[in-house]
Amino acid sequence: MSGSQNEAVTGPDSVVIAARDLTKRYGNANAVDAISFDIFRGEVFGLLGPNGAGKTTTILMMLGLTDISLGKVNVLGFDPARSPLEVKRRVGYLPDSVGFYEHLTAVENLSYTARLMGLSRSERTRRIEDALERVRLADVAHKRVATFSHGMRQRLGIAEIIVKRAEIAILDEPTSGLDPQATLEFLGLIGELRAEGITVLLSSHLLDQVQRVCDRVALFQAGRIVMMGSVADLAAQVLGAGFVVEVEAEGAGIARRLAAIPGVTNVETLATDRFRMTADRDVRPEAARAVVAADGSLRRLSVDEPSLEAIYARYFQIRPEGRTLDAA
Amino acid sequence: MRREGSPFSGLGTVFVKELADNLSSARMLVLELLIVLTALAALYGAIDNLRQSTAEDPFLLLRLFTVAREPLPSFVAILGFLIPLMAIGLGFDAINSEHNRRTLSRILAQPIYRDALLMGKYLAGLATLAVSLAALWLMVIGLGLIFLGVPPGGEEVARSLAFLVIAIFYAGVWLSLAMLLSIVFRSPATAALVALGVWLFLTVLWPMLAPAFAQVIAPPDPRYAALGIETPDTAIWSQILMRISPNDIFAEAMTAVLSPTTRTLGPVFLEQLRGALMGTPLPFAEVS
User: Quick check: A63 and B109 CB within 8 A?
Assistant: First the structure.
């Protein structure tokens, strides 16, 4: 309808979801407390945090499935509180442990939601066939969902989003309870969605998976976003300067030579032949050269990628008590 | 704040899917079997009774619905019990089972309002009940024709059609209550139990409690008691209170529609009987 209806934030074209001071109040408690964020077209954005931190409530508000107490959110130019149908037509949602009608087949389940989308019969058949092919469920298309494993159901959920041709896919805890093989397959599917230019919102508490697929993450705690940015940014923010290189080598005076490499801020001697160096960049080539120059025998050279797990653990260790713990 | 878009979009799709689910469910089969068997038993008694007694009755077909023979109650009385059971059976897990199977949020993430889902489910349940009640109605009329051999008059058909409409409406009342409870309670078992509790209260306990409450509100006058009749005020209050129960309203509606000699459902005053021909049927047009 008229433009005045969309009072919500309208950002540049590449912003697909813009939230400003989004708040959800249950009684006196704020489940979501004045959060603001922008999500850009084509990125994979991770919402992470402990259970009950407000991730699912945020998602429900974006879909217009629960009322917004305060603030605004704008999804693809629509206000979900006003035009939830327009939003839901363009956004695919895979809820936490998604369910399907057990007595119906995969095709029948998808066909029901496709009919709710208002697709014509021929369009439905074509899209469903195509989607099941893509999530590798084509051979069980006419089996009842009751016989499906958890992983197959999650893939069927992705198929539903593909059938919908959603511009944004919101996945709530999609990989919890999946076995490693199914998880890998599922993360592969998320990669495929992204390659097609679909914006993916992924909520999870499984950190290494979030790290593997997300471009940016927002860290939720007690209804607030306490940190937001790429994993590398967060690492720099929480863990301090970047690269930790471990060297295992035998030889005299290695520690001294390693410390002399430019960019190295600290060298720890863990054992007579093991050293850990902290640097502001990847110093492995220089470290190798230093060991060889010292006539030592280099046995191992490894670099620790900044891990979300470490960031997360560190962050939630530091904040509640308000004091910094010593680095291990 | 007004929301945009039609609350009815998707209604038809939900209706068709739910209707298909209902009609193919095992639960429906059991309920239909139950209702058909009980109806047959009741009709058998009625037909047996009618054959012996009344050849002159102008409303023979309607008697089929209302005549009872010990130990079986009349067909209408049985329906008064069975319709709520059918409706509760169809509605008690309408929403909470979707929630428990985790299909609810997936469906609501499609471009429909929850109104469409609720309405679609309700209409599908009502259609299911209407289909089985219509089948039952046809069966009763058909059996009546075969065994009694008397063609029904226009008035009788009109009255029995009114019976069908009222029965469907009555089913709708219980279906909506059952669906409401399925929204309020997460567990289908709790919802079913509460629905049955409400039903039992309104059909068994309320008819006993209503007169008692009526006597509190309008104490009986000893002068009327001395004459051995009920105090009019008390009787009126009692009737008003009784009508809280849908079961009572159904029974009253059935009496009005199926017993053509009925003139009033409440206490009769002499004033109202002036000019009345006792024992003659009231035309159908006057019933309402």
Answer: yes
Give contacts of B102 with chain A, Cβ < 8 Å.
Answer: 95-99
CATH superfamily membership of A3-229: P-loop containing nucleotide triphosphate hydrolases (3.40.50.300)
Count up the domains in chain B and report the number: 1
Residue, of A263 and A318, whose pLDDT is higher:
A263
Residue of B nearest to A62 (CA): B109
What does the pLDDT look like over A189-203, one tens digit per residue?
999 999 999 999 999
Burial string for B91-119 (b: 16+ CB within 10 Å, else e) reads bbbbbbebbeeebbbbbbbbbbbeebbbb
Contact (Cβ atoms closer than 8 angstroms) between residue B140 and residue B44: no
Query: In chain A, positions 228-267, which contact chain B (CB-CB < 8 Å)?
Result: none
The candidate with the shortest Cα–Cα distance to A250, out of A295, A285, A289, is A295
| Domain ranges for chain A | 3-229, 243-305
Domain A243-305 has CATH 3.30.70.2190: no
Nearest chain A alpha carbon to B112 = A85
Sort B193 into a burial class: Cβ within 10 Å, 0-12 / 13-18 / 19+. Answer: middle
B13 vs A84, A100, A116: nearest CB? A116
* Range(s) of the domain holding residue B19: 11-204
Structure token pair of residue A9: 């934030």
Does residue B246 sit at the A interface (CB-CB below 8 Å)?
no
| Mean pLDDT, residues B26-32 taken together | 82
Contact B107 A116 (CB under 8 A): yes
Choice between B133 and A308, residue whose per-residue pLDDT is larger: B133
- Interface residue A118 vs chain B (CB under 8 A): yes
Asked, for residue B109, whether it belongs to a domain, the answer is: yes
Candidates B14, B103, B111; nearest CB to A88: B111
Dist. CA B106–CA B12, nearest whole Å = 18
pLDDT band at A4 (very low <50, low <70, confident <90, very high): very low
Partner-chain contact B109 A85, CB within 8 Å: no
HSE toward the beta carbon, residue B145, CA cutoff 13 A: 10
Closest residue by Cα to residue B144 from B76, B52, B267, B44 = B44
Number of A/B CB contacts below 8 angstroms equals: 77
Closest-approach residue (CA) in chain A for B3:
A82
- Cis peptide, bond prior to residue A84, ω within 30 of zero: no
Q: What are phi and psi of B90, to 5 degrees?
A: -85, -30
The residue that leads in pLDDT, A90 or B236, is A90
Backbone torsions φ then ψ of A82, nearest 5 degrees: -100, -50
A275-312 burial, b if ≥16 CB within 10 A, otherwise e?
A: bbbbbeeebbebbeebbeebebebeebeeeebebebbb
Cβ pair A118:B111 closer than 8 A: yes
Supply φ then ψ for residue B240, to 5 degrees. -60, -45
